[in-house]
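Known limitations

Files may contain more than one protein. Parsers should not assume a single record per file. Below, a two-record file is shown to illustrate correct handling: read the sequence, read the token line, then continue until end of file.
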Amino acid sequence: MSITLTTWSLEQTSPSDLRPATPPEGDGIAVRRAEVPSPEFARFLYTAVGGDIHWTDRLGLTYRQWQEIVEKPGSEIWVAYDRGTPAGYLELDAQENGVVEIVYFGLIPAFRGRRIGGHLLSCGTARAWDLAERWPDREPTERVWLHTCSLDGEHAVANYERRGFRLFDTKVERAEETRTPGPWPGAHA
């Protein structure tokens, strides 16, 4: 079945663009970098977060391809934890000319709607801006960008805009609807 797919691209061009969210109440939420590159952990996060919102582009990747993603210099995964349990993640990809892309961002379904997403996005965006401090061979960040689409969560664009991202491109196209895979086959049948 064919659907209309809208893709929005948003950016920040200065660290001062970031408008951080108020952290969730309580002391159980922590955002930490996954410092040991792990293809298994990266794939777990990808499927757990994106399984119900049509993230399928990486499902066919081999172990080696996942390894190349997580071991790429300037690639970082930042994970939100709720009392020690992974709640969601944000993946950064350092590109040429001081550009950093937020490649993936989202929460595992059970953790959505609890103000964790805005906090994670704030922390991850701040880490995009200071990425060169952790990767001395990288140029200082000049631009942070991302894209989201109409298959992502209904509050995605508004969350990005609240954090200070500005829309710079919109594309509308026809696409074939894919079955929502769940975090593993049959999980959301």
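...continuing to the second record:
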Amino acid sequence: MSASSPLPYVLILYYSRHGATRAMAEQIAAGVESVRGIEARLRTVPPVSPTCEAVDPEIPTEGAVYASLDDLRHCSGLAIGSPTRFGNMAAPLKHFLDGTSELWLGGALIDKPATAFTSTSSLHGGQESTLLTMLVPLLHHGMLYAGLPYSEIELMETSGGGTPYGASHLAGKRSDRPLDDHERQLSRAQGRRLARLALALGRLEGEPS
């Protein structure tokens, strides 16, 4: 890659209501950027309003900017994050993914690595079911799903979040519990793994058949 060429990037796309999922996204970004030769791009999605006339500003007042289809189209890897809503991803993230048919039709995401992360108020509040349902649209896009292997010893030690399906966080009933050391380490490990896979798969794509 020449000095003038932009670095490949992992898109970290999330929705966060109280800040916990955003904190995880930032840790995953730190993990991505610990790998040489690739960048992290943080993006969020706007809330979904039950009132059709309600319109949010084009740029949020804080945090990451809103994602575009081009952010997704040109990424080398994807991490999606959402709080749990009855064992599933939150509506704003699903609404964004529901609007990616253009990318699906063009096969823009085929063979790119992807992963997911989530946060819940209670320990058994649907972390694993949320992660499993979040991977479904990624598989429809032809992406390669990467969870967390048990070589990450924190999976065996955590008393908060952490699953082989992806990083998770126990936010507490007031959604004010910060990430603990295990949750931070697992989030960073997930980012590192995704970055390494994105680089490796990108090199394979460039090889002659």
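Parsers that stop after the first record will miss the second one. For reference, the second record is described as follows. The two ends are 20 Å apart (CA to CA).
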